[in-house]
Amino acid sequence: MKRTFYLLLFLLIYGQIIMAQETFPVNGITNKNQVVYAFVNAKVFIDFETVLEHGTVLVQDGKIIDVGTNISIPKGALEYNLEGKFLYPSFIDLNTSYGINNSAKFKGGGRAHQPQIEKKTPNAFGWNQAIKPEVDAAAVFKADDKEAKNFRDLGFGAVLTFSHDGIARGSSALVSLGEGKENSLIIAPEVAAHYSFSKGSSKQTYPSSLMGRIALLRQTYLDAEWYRKDKKREEQNLSLEAWNDLQDLPQIFDAGNKLNILRADKIGDEFGVQYVIYGATDGYQRIDELKKTDAAFVITLNFPKPYDVNDPYEADNVSLAQMKHWELAPTNPGAFESNGIIFALTARGLKDKKVFWKNLRKAIANGLSEKEALKSLTYTPAQLINASDKVGSIKKGMLASFIITSGNIFDKKSTIYENWIQGKQYIINDIKQLDLRGQYELTYGKQVLKLDIKGEKHSINAKVFFNDTAFVKAKTLVSGKQITIVFKESKDKKAGSVRLNGIITEEDWKGRGQIPNGNWIDWNVKKVAAFKPEKKEKKKEALPIIG
Question: How many domains, the chain?
Answer without folding.
Answer: 3
